[in-house]
Amino acid sequence: GKGKEDYISGTTVPPDESSARYRTWKAENHMVMSWLLNSMTNEMGENLMYYQTAKVIWDATRETYSNKDNMSAIFEIKGILIDLTQGEMTITDYFNALIRYWQQLDMLEDIKWHCPEDNQQYKKILEKERIYKFLLGLNKELDEVRGRILSIKLLPSVCEVFSEVRREESRRKVMFGLGTKIPTSTESSALAANRGQSSSNTQ
């Protein structure tokens, strides 16, 4: 969130415990710590969960994982992402899996920017790439909503794209009454035909 990166950089320093601001600092520091730990693998997080500040966790992570280790970890995560598709997962589970790996990459890829404008441009490009990855991994039965999103001239954020796809998933579940399984286009046509035939037979 806005300003929370200051807890990682150390710009926001802990006030004295007697200060009126200490409670706010403590709550926000714990929130940033949770973000960091939740973005890591269990093995990484277990080694860092007892540190007291977000900055210490961040510094320890950067110190523990050298550039050489970073390259190996980044390579491994990118390989996982290439193969990661929705499969039997719900839209929410699939998206959460992507988010976890993306957060790990964000932590490992420590890019130094000399120009704020370049940083903002990079973030826009990265957001678009992540939208494409999310959409590419969706199951075939969601081709319609995928095409609808890709037809938008200015793509929304990846979170907005996820929300739109999840709404479509929910709509199809309600429409076809199939629990967690979403029918393919062929199955949808067959179900619609069967329902139409049933209606005709009852008249």
Automatic annotation (TrEMBL):
It comes from the Eukaryota. This is UBN2_3 domain-containing protein. It comes from Cephalotus follicularis (Albany pitcher plant). The lineage of its organism: Eukaryota, Viridiplantae, Streptophyta, Embryophyta, Tracheophyta.
